[in-house]
Records
---
Amino acid sequence: MKLATLSAFLAATATVFQTVSSISVNAIFDQHPLQLPLHDRKKPNIVFILTDDQDLHMSSLSYMPHLNSTLIQHGTLYNSHYVTTALCCPSRVSLWTGLLAHNTNVTDVNPPYGGYPKFVQRGFNDKWLPVWLNDAGYGTYYTGKLFNAHTVDNYDEPHVKGFTGSDFLLDPYTYQYRNATFQRNREKPMSHKGQYSTDVLAAKAYGFLDEAVERYEEESEPFFLAIAPVAPHSNVEFNSLDIINGPEFKTTAPLAADRHTHLFPDAKVPRTPNFNPDTPSGVNWIKKLEKQSENNVEYNDHFYRQRLRALQAVDEIVLNVTARLAEAGLLDDTYIIYTSDNGYHIGQHRLQPGKECGFEEDIAVPLIIRGPGVPKGEVVDGLVTTHVDLAPTLFSIAGIPLREEFDGTPIPLSYKRIKHQKKHGKREHAGVEYWGFALEEGEYGFSHHEGEDVKGYYTNNTYKALRLVGEDYSLYYSVWCNNEHELYDLDKDPYQLTNLYTNSTLIKDYELLGYPLKKVLGRLDALLFVLKSCTAETCQSPWSALHPSHHHHVSSLTEALDERFDEYYEEEVEKIRFDRCEQGYIVEAEGPQWDKSMGMRGGLRWSEWV
């Protein structure tokens, strides 16, 4: 599908962007026309831009004209891209390692279950993307937010490995837009109080890009540059990093650069059917949320506008990076990847600003790729990609053999491969998992005063989920640690308001794909059962784990619904359940686990076949 819809929207609202930036896109690229690709077989360069908490479903991309003109119109937007954990640190570790969170066991933003100390303790400082790219001959550079709990006190315990050059944002100042602290290479941290964080980061990114381009020209060293601003994350001021035992921090709306504070005065959170609905939705703590007041909604609209304004400085980085690559004659030899660590909700399902949920707003994020052979102006629907696919994708781009332990596979970048994978039913599933807390942000969200209960902070937010997208179906299925279930048919219910599986009861007479709901649910439950503890190839091809026999090849939900398999799914495969709720990944709490003896071989279970 071509980009007609988004382009038409941008054209219709062009006046909104007239004051966004004084930089003329056309003038820059007229002065430095795009160069033809080099023909000396050098490895391609990679620029990776990673925002923080950016939505896909609240129209933020429509307010970024430079992103549209330089990347979306010259690359491909993957419209079904999902994070596998809707929280920044676990998501980032999965992204940079190619492993799901249950395989990294980094599941939180702070110890004992997550954060930079857990990343180090688990041994990933020696086995993650920058180390691998560096070993393959790449110059590797990073500036911005890396992981949570990477602080002014522990940045050298040990230093982050794998980078030719680095300049990291450090806690507790990471989310303070006008009080950031950066730490360059092995130098001491430096405060930039009073300066706008994204602009400080931009200058550092351009410096690293200039260094990388010089080494590329002089030494033929290809480069990887990651740029990770905190926008549009909320502004957060910490007095203590001990969130569980003594939370002392405050979240407020993001801050914009002075030049952008006047923009979008009439913008509001899209009033979709799931925005502050009259009837509660969801399960667990979510179904107990009260309808938001008019004052609450008005504040959340302000919060939304501040997010859009904060993204304008990021939009300028996109423009300036592409312009500098064009000036150096490297733009057409460089892959530029743009995504976010997780999505975001504001008002949907009565939720205050935040993430951590399994709803589409939280797990679906932008993924835009521009580079050699990537279709221009293309929007790919119905082809599921995930964050654990990104490390394998970068390996593929760099010409590095894939690692056996990867839980993901390379994303198809050419039109031919995209078409092939869609035709053969590949990439229909995303496994989603979460442990621990959920935090409501903003004025009406989290608050804590001595002697009072904590408001807007929920500790029973552990769940496993499955997002499944095929030619004739779009489904979300989840099981929570209290063993409540959710099942949404997004073809008929795109805003996830009607749970088809409430109180362990399926809606009577509802059919999916022409089958009773119970039959389809048996397949979904088995698929999620595999994914919740899968590794490597089992994560990549979970249907093949359930059906390892070449006699009964199954690679999609449609094929799994064959009546020959009814008894297998209804009677033999274990049902997913939790034994108890925990704040992190503790196997003993997670109920039965998949093993290969549960797979079907030629109509028999594996154990019977052997």
---
Amino acid sequence: MRLPASNSLFLRLSPSSFGTPAVCRLTGSALLLWFVTACKTSAPVVTSAPEAAPKPVVLSIGSNKAFSSDEFFDSFTKNQLSADSSQRTDIRSYLDLYTNLKLKVLAAEQSGRDTTEAFREEMATYRKQLAQTYLTDKTLVEQLATEAYQRMQQEVRASHILIPVAEEAIPADTLAAYQLALATRKRLQDGEPFATVAKQVSKDPTVSRNGGDLGYFSVFQTIYPFENAAYQLPVGSLSAPVRTRFGYHLIQVNDRRPSRGKVQVAHILVRLSPSAEPAGVAAAKARIDEVYAKLKAGELFETLARTYSDDAQSKNAGGKLPPFATGQNVPALEEAAFDLTTPGSYSPPIRTNYGWHVLKLIERKPIETFAELAPALRQKVATDSRSEAIRQTMLQRFSRDYNVKENEAVKQAVLAKADSSLIQGRWRMPVNPDPSTLLTVSGAGGFSLNVPASKFFTYVQQKQLPRTETGLTGQGIIQRMYSRFVGDQLFAAEEANLEKKYPEFRALLAEVRDGVLLSQMMEEKVWERSLSDSTGQKQYFEQNKSKYTYPARAVATIIEANDDKLLAETKVRLATSPYALKRSAPDLLFEANQTALSPARRDALFEVLVTMVKNPAYVLDVTASRDANEKDSTSAGRLRSVVTYLTSNGVQLARINEKDLQGARSNGDAARRVSFTYLTTSKQDVARVLSGTVTDAVTITEGIFAKGQNAYVDELPWQTGSKSFAKGNKVVQVTISRIDQPRPRTFAEARGAVINDYQAYLEQRFLADLRQKYPVQVNEEELKRLLK
């Protein structure tokens, strides 16, 4: 459960969060799309050049496919720059790879794969993705992300007065709102108290209880024009009227402080309605006081949360809430959370509009670095209210490249269709919309985009929303929608014209096209068959059995420890199985003659259940006892209650060792209990427990090793036995339990390698058939020129 801050419904934004066989197979055309976009090293540049003479051809395939030296060399250069230096190839070897790719693409084209509806849809999707780079101002996005990060370092406390006026309001209403804002500002400058004036003038729905004080907030928590003013004003100063889509604001900055970062807490909520009767208020207070008293008496917060909390979303997680920053939660809870300084500490009961809470601090987190937050910040600035600034920058650029010519008569006829139904969001387009051209967008090189009136009608019907502001008219709304529509057509024109305008985009799209076709052909001819053709796999295995043999191998266990003491302790723990962890859970205590699980015992036992579920290799010793005054069967009853609870919640009986001590423990409370000890069947669990908080203080490696696969095993004589030695800052014990002599692998053992090899075999056959069908010719003279 996240408790949203609600200082201002129209200003505050919702809080958002800123963390088989080894088959050699591509992941498809999505991988190529990533590759070609990753290869992009500079912003697009508009180019225009006179028609050039035919370029020299370096490669011809079949009768009608020729590739110029330039396009081949560009591909070679790009892939060399993007590849790992250890995997780079020379130009002649790359020509073979390039030829093979073009052969597969040609085969796809000849089979008509580039004409299918599925192919066109896939290409349209990739084109849309590639186009986004050209339809946004990356420099401005980066500037806004940097600005946002800088603002995250501070929290601002501000008050405001809202004088609402819609963006589509008639000029007279807009002017009246502005004049009222100026008159109100004059009252404040003359010394009238801000809260008093705000309650008289402001239409912010929260003003009656906060006098216009929004509390502390940070970046992204108000709309961008408001945020700009708040961060630019000195403390104590008053802004001029600030226009947003909600109207005019007068903003007074009251304080600034360094960011407090994020905090994560758990809470126990006793829900209380704001309209509760006195008896309900008293009952809620008594219940939260009971919780607080139990906490002070030493009971676990998580257990109490599961028992008492009314927050259904968090109670089963011990009350844990998502991390939050200033302005993302209700103020009272927020302040109490940030007042906690020590992880594990908890607050006294606090009251919010949700009810009563007790909080436990989990951790405090400082603001992450810009490098960590940059991807989320870039996405955020491109989608929040800053996106309008980015849009306007792009429209200014497009307006220089394209000319918009409106058909004035059609425009006026279209705008005249607006009526008051637009205000309710119920406007319907004409039954037979005008097919005439509403506007034309034209650009260089003969580019032209005709936009019919019917497209605008569709746009209005889809984009309209019910409006509640006063002073709106259908004409005002449709005029603003038309202005927005024209801007959208400029974006559409730019997107449609990308291939002509940017050669680089055209080349990227061509590479993606080839990648999609290549992926389809490889899927059909190689990948799918290599996986599904079990008969072919076995035939290939039988014909190449000598390739699939195991060399001599040692079955070994290697223990690395930071010192001799840890190594000795590890050896002791591993001496018997299951392995001792020396880890236990708190005992369950019972009243005399009681065997049933009370709610409190179930809560305590839940922790044991969680531990067993999280650690599937754990084995649990469950030991039950009684005192001398109880019946012999009492300890067995306690044991059965505990085991039944665990097995009914998913713990296998085979993982539980039951021990009934009868009356072996001393008399009294200490004898009436069930105790728990954890063991494990996993050596890795032993290593983790012994390492504690020191990473890799103990590591245990088990495996079957051939020569050259493990340096420690290689140092020993090739025979069974154990040896301990120092290596660097570690002490090591290597135990070789068996030596396996060389032998052939079975098909099942070799299947992964067989599939890889069979895939390569199928691809070679496929390429051989293609080279026979489509003869390949290389212009050696041109290739030699490229080699220089």
---
Amino acid sequence: MQEKGTISIHTENIFPIIKKFLYSDNEIFLRELVSNAVDATQKIKRLAQLGQYAGELGDTTVKVNFDKDKKTITVSDSGLGMTAEEIKKYINQIAFSGAAEFVEKFKEAKDANEIIGKFGLGFYSAFMVADKVEIQTLSYHDGAAPASWTCDGSTEFEIGPGTRTTRGTDVILYVNSESEEFLEKFKLQEILDKYAKFLPVPIQFGTKTESVEDGEDEEGKKKWKSVEVDNIINDTTPIWTKSPNELNDEDYLKFYKELYPFSEDPLFWIHLNVDYPFNLTGVLYFPKVKNEFELQRNKIKLFSRQVFITDEVKDIVPEFLMLLHGVIDSPDIPLNVSRSFLQADGNVKKINNYITKKVADKLSELFKKDRQAYEAKWNDIGLFVKYGMISEDKFYEKGKEFTLLKNTDGAFFTLNEYSDKVKAIQTDKNDQTIYLYATNVSKQDAFIQSANKKDYDVLVMDSPIDSHFIQHLEGKLEKTSLKRVDSDVAEKLIQKDDGYANLLTEEQSTKVKEVFEKAIANKTYSVEVESLSPEELPVTVTMDEFMRRMKDMAQTGGGGMSFYGSLPDSYKVAINGNHGVIDKILKAENEEEQAKLAKQAFDLALLAQGLLTGKDLTDFVKRSVGML
């Protein structure tokens, strides 16, 4: 008996919306249809387990086929199947509250997941690529008759007798002219590899050629022959569905290579497995992050019941954990709602907090279990840990015990250990403990040596995030400041009550300042004459700590710091009035000789800072040779 009717969607705008607003994500149609087939298959298996279906399950493989000549794609399953009445119930009624709301809410939609899931449009995503869709189905119920359904992309459908003779459903897509790219084998394989690689039911896509052993030749060597076998594209039991005690290191490393074939082996990993108060499984890997800050992002894959959803997991995973790799699978994450709702969702917050805690616990465990091995990994994980310390207060509180600081001697210290190390000698007259740091050990060597002469310790802070980490530490550590070792002369970095007497008269100091200002002739450099140790350099060029730090933060994307990044560089030139070279300049025969000596001393200071380049460097070398 043939039957015609109208799909209950309350508007004729539904198909133009599907085709227009979801077009950029049109490959999702295959994910949705295959997922539906898997659901139907799992349900019949469950009914059989419960004794509510007594028939033979048979082969439950979901099959995807295409016919380029007929321009069709077919997804077939041996699942529950449907009666004609069930088709009316599940296919013909798209449940949403009013066409006007739908059109308004999604007229500028970019996220196909949101539209498809929220309004039950999984099946209807087929019309993103098809002019006509046909269903051939046979229900598992005893005595059920096969049924068919066809729709040409309008709101009209037709239900009639079907041709299927075995339990299950075929969904046949008649691909439109704009979507013929999906009639290529490599394209369909690519989509299946992306979305269905770990589905819990075998998915077959045609066949593939494999070499199998075929006896031995006369010399006793193995012979091989090529055979056609089913192309099963998925692993139905990926490691995150298993218990950790079923797995070994080789299993985790093998899975990592499946996900990221061209990556180095990870440092270590965390197996997530919780079922209360939310469901979450997965494996998170710690890659060798080093300084490739942006390149590492978007490497966590989000699944829902083994169906791949996205690799953009922001809001579900804490920001700093975006540097990790791996898989998260949870049916409790609302995938089909707006981001603002996602951020406020209770389960998402719990999952976010849980993952943060698990990561912190793992790092703490590694640190306590084998500190030496942990220190050896620090260059690879330091960036990640510091990022976490900055962005998550809860992580900071846990991370204080396993965050390390490294000094120029290559020694490592926890935050508490380092405070104890330097507090006595590096506390200034205002009772502030000063941590000195270098961002480029080789370029700042002269300043490091000057600090070391005073028994000051110098930290190495050379990662892309360290300018922000330094700022964060100052806000957290009590009575502690951090100064770059070349931000001032060693005498002034940590100011004590005792200082050096000025050997120059006021008149001599004024004269020295004038000589250097004339020799430098550049307003970028402000000259000051200071009373320093005779053992310090005659001239030191520095940039103010605050200004330098703001510029560093601006370069690495510090919020609100772009203003400082646009300011021209400015430097302080500290003249050591107590150095013999300054006395020599004052006693020079004439102003020309004074200027020549002052310029040479100034260029030496620039050379120590790595600021002497190009023609200025060439001229300096020529002058130096001339003085020999």
